[in-house]
Amino acid sequence: MIRFLLKGIFRDRQRSLLPVLVATIGVMLTVTLYCWLNGFLNDSIELNARFSTGHVKIMTAPYAGNIDQIPNDLALTGVDSLMKKLKKEFPAMKWQQRIHFGGLIDAPDPAGVTRSQGPAIGIGIDMLSGDHSEIERFNLEKSLRRGKLPAHQGDILISELFSQKLKVNPGDTVTLIGSTMNGSMAMYNYVIAGTIVFGTPGMDQGSVIVDLKDVRDALDMNDAAGEIIGYLPEKYYDDKTAEQVVTRFNLLFPPSGDKYAPVITTLRKQNNLGQMMDQISQVGAFVVLIFVLSMSLVFWNAGLLGGMRRYMEFGTRLAIGEDYSHIYRTMIYEAVLIGIVGSVSGTAVGLLLSLYLQNHGLDLGSMMKNSSILMPSVFHARITAIAFFIGFIPGLFSTVAGTALSGIGIYKRKTAQLFKELEA
Amino acid sequence: MENSTLISIEALKKHFPTSGGRFTALNGIDLKIGKAEFTGVVGPSGSGKTTLLNIIGSLDSPSEGRAMVLGLSISDLNVKQAALLRRTRLGFIFQSYNLLPVYTVFENVELPLLLLKLNESQRRKMVMDSLEWLGLTDKVKSKPAQLSGGECQRVAIARAMVKRPEIVLADEPTANLDAANSHNILKTMVRLNSEFQTTFIFATHDDKVISYLKRKISLVDGKVEKDEITGN
Ligand SMILES: Nc1ncnc2c1ncn2[C@@H]1O[C@H](COP(=O)(O)OP(=O)(O)OP(=O)(O)O)[C@@H](O)[C@H]1O
Ligand SMILES: [Mg+2]
Asked: How far apart are the C-alpha atoms of A203 and B99, rounded to whole Å?
């Protein structure tokens, strides 16, 4: 009997090819959309990780508490040995020191008299040690508008808009006026290496990027850093791994009485990113729900149409002595088979599509009017383990639910009534 | 004849609900049909022929009265028991053949045996026997779409006969056939009737069919008007 039914399915394309195709398309869309949204949210999170939070971040507790004010007087000290220890204990991770600072940028005329001046927010990152990773993280090569990237100590990058406001050009010297770690006034001269466009209005107003060592020299922060940022070896943040790093770190650096002892925190606990991450898991459920509903409707309709086509078959099978429940069950089995085949092929196609989007991404930059450069405009899909089976939920559920719903109509008809409809 | 009664109908009524109340399609039928009969229910359109045949075939149930078929009371059967009765002991032939288009002639005839869970060699033998009775052995692998109307109806008869049922119910079996094919099929059924002692019951208003009947039960407005043994 099973072979008999299988023959029927394979020979009747309206019962096999068509529904499999519909299931395949639906499942493919589910998988691709899921991977895409997943990637999109993760890209946004990674953006935060790159510019601000890291996957984990080490600060002093007081610094963390007042992070908005960039309180460099509360910065970490003894960072050289701390870095050594981190690199030894967590060799797979990437650790970077960063110093955020605020101050005035002063552009003098050749006589040394102030020509123009403006408040600046700055960040000191490692650009000159030979490690290229921070330059990549900040996407500096592509963000460069004029000039070059820093090549010598004392070079500075400044946002293009800011340079226009100050009427300075690459090659000009500017002075940073700020305060040292101890609170005294700091003045330090930099040569503008290049200008960059960040793509976010806030940062384009007045941002500067200098090499870490130059900030240290300027702000008297030898062997100190506002924060040490750690990146997991994986491309994307994983909360479990990050928490393991935290646990391990806390074992290595047990809480002491020292108020300025290093304290570690994860990406999830910074900048409300936890909330954003929770959304990712909701997205999966949402996508699945939408497709389960819409595809069930499609299969319900297809089942009703197919059922009408098959009245003769069902009526005949009933007359020959098959009972309703057996016919109904065989319809469900057929749907399960269609659902599985459709889910497998749809998942395969969806994963291929997602893989392409994961590797190549989709350039939304051209769609955004003020195409940002520092912000990545190319968004990638992301394939996770869930992507391998998430399509089976709509794929299987909707074929079966659609068939079950449409089958009830046949179930309810009196046998004799089926024949009446046949004769008509 | 009395001890070989297969069908016994007493005071049978069938009402159908309609918008304005109910419509009585069968209005007090009393009838006995015995083994190996070749009987037809005849009468004008709307007289209740199909309704009566459906009740005998356990596809429908009486509203009032009793219909005993092969010792079973149709009104007392649940859907599973009715299906079992049809599966094991009744055969159906329809006006529009009702062959399943995706299956071959062999597979169409095999279906009733699949439901009986017979093994492959048993099935093969019975199907081939049945196709031989109907002269269809060269069409085993054909699909219904490749057959003429007469051939389709012969396949349908083979399907009804393959499990050697005690009763075959045929509702207007010749309505879609030309004269030559009608006679051909009727002769075949007469032969099967005498060879296997299968009871045939027709619902028809076709004179060609009527000319082959051994007994003619005339229905008018849901009542038996005449019940006569004919000369055949
Ligand atoms: N399900 C139903 N609901 C309402 N009325 C019905 C139903 N089935 C049959 N009838 C009515 O019962 C009467 C008898 O119908 P039946 O089909 O038995 O006639 P018939 O003798 O087979 O006619 P024909 O020669 O046209 O096939 C008809 O008037 C028909 O309209
Ligand atoms: Mg009729």
From this structure: 76
